[in-house]
Design goal:
20 helices; eight-stranded mixed beta sheet; single chain; 3 domains; Rossmann fold; alpha/beta; 14% strand; four-stranded antiparallel beta sheet; globular; Alpha-Beta Plaits
Amino acid sequence: MQISARYQAVAELIEEIFADKQPADNILNMYFRERRFIGSKDRKFIGEEVWSVIRHRRRLEFEAQSQDIRKILLVYLKEQNLDEIFAGGKYGLEPITGDEKLWLSSLEEIPYPSDVEAECPQWLYNKINDMALLKSLNVVASADFRINARSRETIIQKMRDEGFDVVPTPFSPIGIRAEARINLNNCMAFQDGLIEPQDEASQLAAILCDVKPEHKIIDYCCGAGGKSLALAYLMHNQGKIEAHDVEPQRMEALDIRMKRLQVSNIVKISTEQVSNDYDRFIIDAPCSGSGTWRRSPDAKFRLTEQKLNVITDAQAKLLDIAADRVKKNGEIIYITCSILADENQKQIEAFLERNGGFELTDMTEVWNRNIGAGFPFTEKNCLAFNPLKTGTDGFFIAVLRKK
């Protein structure tokens, strides 16, 4: 593809992504699926440019003083050869006009407001109010994997032999990290079921559930089953894990994943089968996903205050369901992939006000016994992971014990 045709594809994709109706990943996948004639190098170029524009969306719109995609691209590419990029032709971007060049040269450099510098919608910036954290969530994330075999060192060596540059994760004893993305179709360690993609914070959350084969366990918001699969590995495929989701279709991929990872101790159940005597009631709660903005920077623009209110109401209801379903001395493990206090600390505080029969667990003992690496938190009860503190996605975990 000529450079102009490449950027025409970028413009088409950005136009649809900035409508904020669907995740960018879905849009990109569909775009390339419908255009199989686009070669791998062109796909890589187009994808990287699209993600770059998304990560700089606030600044580009601010500099352009417009949400017009063509103006945004002109600002984004202003240091490039614009006549070559906006070259016209059947598949290329329309030629740049004299008026556009004049407009571009007349743009003044104005200091960014804080929310623009943080690349964050203003209402979310006001809620989070942490420039360093927001900037860290706009940097490309590493690729983390959970091992699915006994020896991490053996798997690391196997992946290095395949040509992948991987290292142990700093905290999780079952994690492997690659700074560059790995095509899993070309990774035999993945094909053989020796690794599973999972951010280190998510691995640590599974470890801190502190499950044992003799426990009665439910992963109540199972989704595609990532936490359940990690728990199965930690239990050495012993005992039983009940996997549940109010929308059973979300669990459709679980059977395939179980087969590849050779997991046999997960049982999918319906809402009617949920009992009331669990040792571990795990809520991997539906949330804003704000902790995963490194991987999905477009998600922050699809989140609204109304959507956040709906999410937090649902989280509170899930906690109250768990309160009735866990037995005495049993534990509710509440997990989100969010950095927002509304979904994390405030949610736990409100639950404890409603339910006096629960208390927060000190996580240091569980951490030291199961993880061993230095405890990176000052707070002992509600643990908040993020790229600044732990080099991971933003995650939150609190363990509530029923007295």
